[in-house]
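so the lab meeting is tmrw and i was supposed to have these ready like two days ago... anyway. pasting both below. for each one the top line is the aa sequence and the line under it is the C-alpha cells. i havent really looked at them closely yet so no promises
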Amino acid sequence: MRSRYTWRMDKCILVVGGGAREHALCWKLAQSPTVKRLLAAPGNPGIAEIAELLPIAQMDIPGLIQAAKKHAVDLVVVGPEAPLEIGLADELRAAGIPTFGPSKAAAQIETSKSWAKELMDRAQVPTAYYTTAEDLYSALAALQDFTYPCVIKADGLAAGKGVVIVGTYEEGVMAVTALLEERSLGDAGARIVIEECLTGPEVSIFAITDGSTIRVLPPACDHKRAYDGDKGPNTGGMGAYAPTSLIDADLMNTIERTILAPALNEMRQQGTPFVGVLYAGLMLTANGPKVIEFNARFGDPEAQVVLPLIESDLAEVLYAAANGALADVQLKWKHNAYEVGVVMASAGYPGPYDRNTPITGIDAAGQDAIIFQAGTISDPMEYWPRMADAF
C-alpha cells in the first residue's frame, strides 16, 4: 500500500507544554532515529536535558505558530488540554503545520462534560445515568431522583477540582449551590452534570487515532489519594502502573468495539473528527466497562508509565496520525514488561504546599529509575545555552 505521507529521517518536532507528561513525551520522541531536532515550549529543566526550550507560553498561539514556522517544524504535539480548548490545534493546521491534537470542537469531549455525555448517548456508549442542570431549581429537583452516593461534575475544565461525590441529598444541595449560585469554580461550573456513582475498578485506556484508525496503548491504572493506604484527599494522581491485569485481550476488544470505535465514529459523522489521543477513563462495573469520562490528551501520570512501554517509533506514529495515515503504520508495545510510577510532591499537596523546595538526588537514581519533572525551576543560566532562539 502506498503511503499517504512522506516520512523523512530528519524531522523537527515541537512539544507544547511543560509538565511531566510532556517530559515523558520528549523522552520517548528523543529516542527516535528519525527526529533530528526536538523543541519544547515552554518545557522545564528536565526537558532541557533532551530538547531545546522555547520561551513561549503554552497558551500563546501566535507565538507558537511563529516559532513553528521559523524552525520549519514538521509536527507539533500538544500535551495539555488548556491549549486545545482555545483552539491551538485548529490555528496550527490553518497555518499548514501538521498537529497531533484535536480541534477545539473535538476537544469538547473533555472540555464539556455535558457535550461528552450527549455524544455517548447518540453513539450508545455505556456510561453512568445522568442529567444536566444550569440553575439551582433544576439541580435541586434532579437530586431528588438519584440514589446516594451520586456524582456532581462541573461541565467545564476545573483543574481537577470539578468532581465531587456526595453521600446524601443534603451534601448534594451544598455542592450544587456552591457551583451554580456561589460560582465556586466560575464559568466551569455554570452548568453541571449529576450522575449515578459507578462502582468497580478504574482503568485508563489511551487510543491514538487519526479520526478513523485506532491504535490502542497498554491499559493503565492510577492512584488518586494523597497518602499511603489509599487515604487522604484526591489529587491529580500520585502514581500509576501499566499494564494492568484487569484488562485482558478479550476485554480490550470489547472496549474498542463498544466504546472507542462508536465514540470516534460518532464524532466523525457529526463533523468533529478527533485527531490525537483519546483517553477513556473507565469503570469496570458488574455490567461491563462504562465510561466515567473522556479526555482529549494523554493522562498524567499515566503517560509516564505507558510511553516507556511503546516499542514502535512514536514520532512516526504521531506524524502518521496527524496526517490521516495511521492505517499505514503499526503500534507495537513491549509485552511481559511493566512500568510503575510514583509521584513525589511537596509537603501539603494537593492543598497549600511548600514552594522553592530544593530537589536533590536526581543523578543518583542512575539506571534504576526514569525521572520526569513537573513544576520545577532552575537557575536559568544552567540551561539557557540549550534554549532555542525562538524569535
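ok protien two:
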Amino acid sequence: MGTYSSATRQGAYEPFDLQVARNQVDGHIGLEIFGYSTAIGSTAQGPMWEGQTLSGGLYVPPSAAAPLVLVSDSATDNTTRSVVIQGLDASFAPLTETIALNGTTNVTTTNSFLRINQMSMLNSTNTGNITASISSTVYAKINAGVGQTQMSIYTVPAGYTFYLSYVQYDASIGFTSSNYMIAAEYNKVNTGTNSGRITLLNQSTFVQKQEVPFTVPVDHIEKTDIQFCVKANTGSPFTVSMYAGGVLIKNPD
C-alpha cells in the first residue's frame, strides 16, 4: 500500500489517537503492554511475567519456532474453553491461533510459534493455571482466574515499527522504606548488523510509582525483543506492575 502516513484522516477536531483506535489511519495499530508479578527480588533485573522468580533474570524466548503445548492444572478448563495465542512465526510475521483446552490433558497448536506476545481466554475465565510450553520449558502462563497473560515482554513483528510513548511502573514499596526499585528496558534486535545484541535502552530508580511520558515516541524496529524489567535494590518479595503504550506502524512497502 506504499507509504503509511500518520496524517489525520477524519477532520481537524478528532484526536489522532482516537482515529488510530477507530482503525481510521491505515497501517497504525494501538499497542498496550501490561506486566505483573508478585515475585520481584533484588538479585537481577527481569521482566514481569508469570514465570518470574525472586532470582530475576531476562526472559529467554524460544530459539526456534515450534508448536506449543497447552495444559491447565484444573479439569474444569475443558473443551468448552479456548485460548487465543498471539505471537510470531519463524519469520517474525504475526501469527494468531485459537485452541480448545482439554483440562489437565495436553493440547498442541497446529502452528509453530517463535514468539508469544499474549495469550487470553476466548469465552470464559480460566479456573486453573494454564501453561504454554515447548519441550517442557514454559514460555507463557495464564494464572488461575486472570484470563490472560501479564507479560512485560513484546517482540515487534517483521514489517512494523513500534513507537513507544508512555511507560508506568507501580510497586509495593513505601516512602518510609530505605529500599527503591530500579526500572530498565532491555532490547534485543534480531536483524541487521547488530542482530543478537542485547542493549540497555534506559534505566532509572523510583519508589512506589514511576511515569514516563516520552516527549518524542521512541522507535523500536522490526524483530526487536523488548523487555521492561525491574528489581529492588534490597529486600523481597515485592509486587510490581507496569504498563507501556504506543503505536505499531507498518513500514513502507
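from a quick look at the 2nd one: The chain has two domains: 27-59+153-250, 66-142. The two ends are 7 Å apart (CA to CA). will dig more after coffe
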